[in-house]
Amino acid sequence: MRSKLFVPASRPEWYGKALASAADAISFDLEDAVAPERKAAARAELKRLLDGRVDPPADWRAAMRAKTLIVRVNAIDSAHFASDLQAAVWPALHLVNLPKVESPDTIRAAVEAMAKLESERGLSRAVGILANIESARGLRLAAEIAAAHPRVVGLQIGYGDLFSPLGIALAEPSATQAVRLAVRLAAGEAGIDAYDGAFVDIADLDAFRRDSLAARCMGLAGRSCIHPSQIAAANEVFRPSEAEVAHAARVVKAADEQLARGVGAFSVDGRLVDGPFITRARQLMALARRLGMTDPSDNVTPSTDPRATP
Predict the structure, then answer these.
(1) Which domain holds residue 271?
(2) pLDDT (tens digit, 9 = 90+) per residue, 107-122?
(3) Which of 177, 206, 237 represents a domain boundary (last residue)?
């Protein structure tokens, strides 16, 4: 997910525009973007979209098949969590975005509640979890949270909740880079992706692009977008370049040949290549294939990790 566009679940008139956008994922928000008095109505609108009982327009259906559909619910210890899951866990949903996660127990409790609903409703596909890291405790336990259950497909940074109570400036690069690295390493330990949080200055697209490039340098796979104007830049920044894909393809080809001969380290394009570089090349080629950047006949070993993001 290079780009994940937030849409308040209380604004169904925006659903179609969001689905028609170029965002890889749409995150329908039941948490911060919806006032308490409007949450019940927002849940009703979201259920109509996701439960499959009322057909949405044809162009919506096509977009829903092509995109990752996410619902950000309220925190598990809130009065809204159970009702949010009731509205969200339906066949069309891919991921629950779980906010304010501070322990692996939170993940396991959410999985139990989700599995119960899936069983009751006869869902054939398990819904995954995108876990928000947005507190000092959550950051300290991020690796445990990432590995708490195979349903966790990614960690997402929440800068506002993490930084504001601590008096850390949202735009302080040293702070954001430190958090990005910590979250990426925690996610990497579990073999899942890390995603960047929102960039709140929607009027400064140049700054958004620079900030996104900094996130990509830390190994993050994509980020949240709070306005449609941010989508194109996110998609571009988190898309591998043609040169990167071409090099990765040469690495994969050489690896297949050299490993068959028992050679584990070799040179491609004047660079030393061995185990971790081969793994990264295969990952990059798999991403390029998903983005339609490669010929389907390219020799790519796809991921078999059940936690891979849809």
Answers:
(1) 240-310
(2) 999 999 999 999 999 9
(3) 237
